[in-house]
Description:
The chain is of the alpha+beta class. It is built from two helices and eight strands.
Amino acid sequence: MNHTHRTLSVAACATAAAFVLAWTAPVQAASANAPDPATLQALSGSYQMADGSVLSVAQRGRRLVASIHDTELTLVPASENTFATPDGSRQLRFHVRANGSVDGLTLQSTRR
């Protein structure tokens, strides 16, 4: 497996911490519109944050699993290149180039 390190902004680090703290919902069944395994593999990797912590994203079957600070979260597809926690409170949007390579991601809280 190819683990690529990518750097995220300081704002993304704060969001990542909130991402971990907010996780409480049970994992839902995989979506019928789950991306193909090759797409999931391309999104897999280690994303280094500005504070030095690492958000790891791995493919498990037809799902993505994100882990940070010893917390593991199963993600569900929300749209093309965007995945969310099952409760929809957090989203990871992968920055995919035209050639299919991934050069980063954005963590976003969807609750106000």
